[in-house]
Amino acid sequence: MSWAILASALLAITGSAQGGEAIWLHYIFKPLTTMLVWAMVWRATAEGASLYRKAILAALLLSLFGDVFLMLPMQFGFELGLASFLIAHLFFLRAFTRDAPLFGRRLPLILLLALSLANLLVLWPGVGKGLQLPVVAYMLCLVAMTAQAVSRGLSLGTADGKLAAAGGIAFLISDTTLAYNKFHAPVPASALLVLGTYYAALYLIALSVRQKAATYAQ
Prior knowledge:
By secondary structure, the chain is mostly helical. The chain has one domain (2-217). The chain has 8 helices and no strands. Helix 7 packs antiparallel against helix 8 (190-217). It holds the Pfam family YhhN. Belongs to the TMEM86 family. This is Lysoplasmalogenase. It is a multi-pass membrane protein.
């Protein structure tokens, strides 16, 4: 499964980077990669980790919807994609609060809020008025998810906690790069940076489900 995910992700990135006649690779393999990650979580043993697994499955399904919406050429495609990923982050947040208190470690939240606000100040002139409120709402959900993932990882000190924390950070890097590329200035190798970190995020979070299930099975 891991090799299939890697191969699909590379094809999606290649299609996005090359564009033109190769764009069909992006259209096919971008959602397919997320579907493969979803299937990986679906196959994970649910015993002892069913609620965590269900929340991650819902988040990945919404991420899949977001993948498809963001590929639409119209402006509302971006808006629907943004909404899908916003709700996905709420489900990720729900998963990360199943076995750890919300923002039990405050420092990650403070640091990530400060970093995101600094980024927002740079990006703000390029954000259209119709997108300002959705972008702020999305940023807050993304920061909350990532901060909780890191807080949980620090609090639990378990392998699944560390994997999910790394996944949350990768998600933040991916979306921040995407935002700079869309609202500020073209980012070199943006397809590789955005999609590479995005798929790394999904895969690491999926691994956290499998690791958590394996831990309960012992």
